Amino acid sequence: MNSLLQCAACKSRLYEPVTLSCGYTICSSCTQPPSSDATVFVCPAKQCHQPTHLFARNQVAHHVDSTLQRIIEAVSINGDIKYLLCCPHCHDTLCEPVTTQCGHTCCYGCMLKLKCQGKSCTECQSPLPHYSYLNRQASINRLLEQIVRFFAYPKIQQQVVRQQHEYRSPLFTTGSIILPRQRTHFSLFKSSDLHLLEKALLYSNGSLYLPVIHHVRSSTPPRYGTLIQVIGVEERYSPITGKAILLNVRGRERIKVSDIEQVMEDGMAIMVATYGLVPVNAMDNCDIVRTTACDIEMRIRQLAAHDTTTTTTTMVSKQQSHPTLTTHVAGLLGRKWLEDMQQQQGLLPSPAKPDSLVWWVAVALPISVEQRYRLLCSESLQHRLHLVLSWITQLSSQWQYCRRMANQALATVFDQQPYNKML
Length: 423
Ligand SMILES: [Zn+2]
Ligand SMILES: [Zn+2]
Ligand SMILES: [Zn+2]
Ligand SMILES: [Zn+2]
Prior knowledge:
This protein is α+β, with helices and mostly antiparallel strands. The chain has helices at residues 54-58, 66-76, 108-116, 131-137, 142-156, 191-200, 286-305, 309-315, 323-330, 335-345, 354-364, 369-377, 381-416, 418-422, and strands at residues 17-19, 25-27, 97-99, 105-107, 166-170, 172-174, 183-188, 202-204, 207-214, 224-238, 242-265, 268-277. The relative contact order is 0.08. It binds zinc ion (4 copies). Residues 87, 89-90, 92, 106-107, 110 line the site of one zinc ion. Residues 7-47, 87-125 form the RING-type domain. GO terms for molecular function: ubiquitin protein ligase activity; zinc ion binding. InterPro entries: Lon_prtase_N, Lon_prtase_N_sf, PUA-like_sf, Znf_RING, Znf_RING/FYVE/PHD.
């Protein structure tokens, strides 16, 4: 134990430990005095290869890592340290401990949850780092993790949610259907929504997830939903409750709900569901899947290529003051539409990834909630591909017609404008 408590810079016994954003712990006397002319931060930890140190560069004073400080004190008097290895948020043994610049530590998953709920450090109320920083760059406090492994290893595995087959947790309901692969965001400002958010957040494999189903008024609740990943969080002001949260999310996997019950908690009715991830259907015919996927990709590219921008421009060539209007008309399943969609949802996946492709296209096409739900329910990939292909066929004929009509109308309007006649 004593050999563990060593400074990553001077290699002597840690004195007033400071944990840097790279996850290495050094003595506070080993931290460099901040100089204004320094352009590059050179980490004093010899093993560190990380170029960015968010806490260290912007933070003048380093706070002593309070957990490690207490451990050092306990070790020096041969005291028990196990109780010091508890997370102040979940009160369980620290799992992937992360220490922020205030010197306080909690589990990485707990930290993400706190941030997602717009909360501050549990112990000192200091603001936590940005969600995107925590999500992408936060480093585990290496020394503390080693100590946890040393003392409480078997507990760590318990928090891995993914290894179970069925989950039981509160469900989140949304107004629209979120499909796998879809990027979207929703804002939460009602206190009941914020309460549910707190209950329904799941942490697994370094990310935060939320099980979501579509909100319906009918007596039978939907059986299928999506596990969405929280990729960003912004705090907003709400005139109603004071606090609002804007979640940036991305659909990951489908869930199938086997049981839902209403539970009263803190005076609020919440839905607690038993659900599992939808299994991959192995009954699909590979050849049919491949050819259908190729067909879909080709049809989408054809739609985008069959752009009416050129024809529109010649028809209304004299009219330069309405570029947005012409782009709008051409944008109906045209090149602009594909560009916009690729910007929002990422590049159109290749037919070699039919599962990704089918979700991408379903997200991009203007289809009804019922159609989206049908797609969400379909367990066979082959079936999903056929559904999507039928929508494309249907939409492309309608859209060609609509675009032509709109372009003609646009040209007529411009021709009739008095100043056009004068030109
Ligand atoms: Zn040192
Ligand atoms: Zn470092
Ligand atoms: Zn925790
Ligand atoms: Zn703190």
